[in-house]
Amino acid sequence: xxxxSNLFMDLAMPGVRGLRPYQPGKPMAELEREYGVSDIIKLAxxxxxxxPSPKALLAAQVRLAAVNRYPDGNGYSLKEALAGRHNVDSVxxxxxxxxxxxxxxxxxVFLGPGLEAVCSAHAFAIYALVTQxxxxxxxxxxxxxxxxxxxxxxxxxxxxxxxxxxxxVVFVANPNNPTGTWxxxxxxxxxxxxxxxxxxxxLDEAYFEYARDVDCPDATRWMARFPNLIVTRTFSKAYxxxxxRIGYGLSHPDVADLLNRxxxxxxxxxxxxxxxxxALQDENHINETVALxxxxxxxxxxxxxxxxxxxxxxxxxxxxxSVGPRVEEVNEALLRRGIIVxxxxxxxxPGFLRVTVGLPRExxxxxxxxxxxxxxxxxxxx
Length: 382
Ligand SMILES: *Cc1c(COP(=O)(O)O)cnc(C)c1O
Hints:
The protein has 2 domains: 25-51 and 284-375, Aspartate Aminotransferase, domain 1; 54-281, Type I PLP-dependent aspartate aminotransferase-like (Major domain) (Aspartate Aminotransferase, domain 2, 3-Layer(aba) Sandwich), CATH 3.40.640.10. Helices cover 37% and strands 14% of the residues. It has helices at residues 14-17, 28-35, 54-64, 76-86, 99-110, 126-133, 156-161, 185-194, 253-262, 270-281, 283-306, 327-336, 360-375; strands spanning 41-42, 93-96, 116-120, 137-141, 167-173, 200-204, 229-234, 247-250, 318-322, 339-340, 342-343, 352-356. The chain has a 7-stranded mixed beta sheet, sandwiched between helices. Helix 8 links the parallel strand 5 (167-173) and strand 6 (200-204). The radius of gyration is 21 Å and the shape is globular. The model has no long low-confidence stretch (mean pLDDT 95).
């Protein structure tokens, strides 16, 4: 339905009117319906290809019989587990339906008409979305240049420059999605020292678990030093529980108190909470996940290099690879082969596809497809 024919557009809040819906990765069932292909592989939403921890699944199953009851909205057991993990008090924790909801809560608490949030170009799309939804403005800082050693990554200096008296929130993704780029400890620490105390800094660490081999700090270490810092984490990515919708924020207790005032009373299910507690304790599964990703991301990148496709450095479980101006054609050809990846033109990266690191055989299929397409002269090697 176009805006003109939408009877209710005039009634919607101005911030909502300007929103464009978030475009998720194509679901497998949709591709099957639309293209009639089977044996589909989805490398489009940075999910864990190994699946959830079996222990998390078991814990969830045990809780299923009690779904006639409302969950413990306060998430006592999960908060206790997280408090122990991060060495903070449980009053510092806000549980969300994915960390996405925590980002939304931050916007609802701290932003509104006349106010601004700062984020980087090529950053996770949700920051601008939650900002605009509450009528605030997203000030987008230019990112690093393509020839920087962290191409298209956050330029913290440029972000600082955009902070003014209307700024209430700064969103930083580390590592960032969809670029995969990351920020080192000293740069980030210097940044936190420079941001005024009345401006909340959200450090989104959705891919933290994957970033073991690089200088990508655990921002929770700065919690006590910077009361304006909110660190978000999720069970959707390395922990393999995307479908359960559970994530959290760590912050000063006063900030957590505000976030918890606006959240819906039963925003996370007890099934998801139980799965999260078990997932947190299953270190084997996380280690296997990270080890597989380490091997396979290297193999993917080598494969891209062999095909003379350039790609961005990534500390996550995905790679942004440049296939040139015929990106739509390449994407379409991949879909016809039953391979779902993510075009990221909407993130200011035309010509790039973001591919999630899959299982070895899935990555083989992707590389084979890229190889065939290159031979067909589909991709631009210029
Ligand atoms: C996936 C992702 C999230 C949030 O995912 P949830 O499923 O809502 O926890 C947050 N930030 C980034 C950068 C992501 O890629």
